[in-house]
Amino acid sequence: ATPLALIRGGGKAANHGILMRSGDAFQIFPDVDRIVLDKTGTITVGEPAVSEVVAFDGTEDDVLAVAASAEAFSEHPLADAILDRADERGVAYADPEAFDSVTGKGVRATVDGDDVLVGKPGWLADEGIDLSSVVDEIERLQHRGLTVSAVVRDGDLVGLIGIGDEIKVDAAATVRRMHDAGITPVMITGDNERTAEAVAEEVGIDRVMADVLPDEKREEIGRLQDEGHRVAMVGDGINDAPALTQADIGIAIGAGTDIAIESADIVLMGDRLGGVMDAHEIGRESYRKTR
Ligand code: ADP
Ligand code: MG
Known about the structure:
The chain is of the alpha/beta class. It folds into two domains: 166 residues, Rossmann fold, CATH 3.40.50.1000; 116 residues, Calcium-transporting ATPase, cytoplasmic domain N, CATH 3.40.1110.10. 41% of the residues lie in helices and 24% in strands. The chain has 13 helices and 13 strands. A seven-stranded mixed β-sheet has the order 1-13-12-11-2-9-10, with helices on both faces. Strands 3-8-7-6-5-4 form a six-stranded antiparallel β-sheet. Helix 9 links the parallel strand 9 and strand 10. The longest helix is centred in the C-terminal third of the chain and has 16 residues. The protein is elongated and about 65 Å long. The two termini are 14 Å apart. 47% of the residues are buried. The structure holds adenosine-5'-diphosphate and magnesium ion. The site of magnesium ion (MG) has 4 residues, from loops. The site of magnesium ion has 4 residues, from loops.
């Protein structure tokens, strides 16, 4: 039979907007020593917006127009940010003639007969684009915690778009609760190292796994487990589902995607990151009562 304290814990959790999808998540949680947090949508609010456009060819609006055309068919949040800014500024852009999304890297499209790439600088460098003259500019934006999308047309860099995403109001306090509980928080993201570290520093996280491709997140969790850690993973996206399944405890946050929710042991209603540590404390409480 299920111990009464666990049932009671489940009720208390529900009152906190915490849904237990697996019976033993509460029992495992007190033994967790690493909590891996996805950056976008978990630590940040997940509504990226353009904060700066740097033009090397033409005006800032010209850069937005090329980028918006290339991103018009993309479903990535960064694409939404670019399209929203173009719309706000009344910049006209056409649908691309051809479009291909490169997962975790960016998009490749044909716009007005030109080959256009929009995406992370590291990917464009791999594609043979020389970014050496703008490295300082890219780093300046990344140090501000912005994600940089470089815009390239027929092999020439036309501009940079710096996109920011606000940090959740309770993120720093929740990270402090993790440290106080003896748990090491780790940020995981497909974003670059500098941007990730700027965000991590702002919330008090010392460990960062950056430039992780969507299908590598699961392996990174497995690696921590191989080192002997008990790992909880918190995420919201489709990309996060395999990692949520791999973790000792998978926690889906916010509205999340259905697939993230189905892969999770614990579902947090609402966007508060604090729900992670509420669940930890309720788990510790009810587990203690059963011994
Ligand atoms: P995250 O793990 O932060 O959700 P993703 O794995 O979706 O990020 O993408 C990793 C990185 O690839 C992004 O930070 C961005 O630099 C780049 N990227 C991916 N898709 C796009 C896109 N449609 N437009 C521009 N950049 C993109
Ligand atoms: Mg994501």
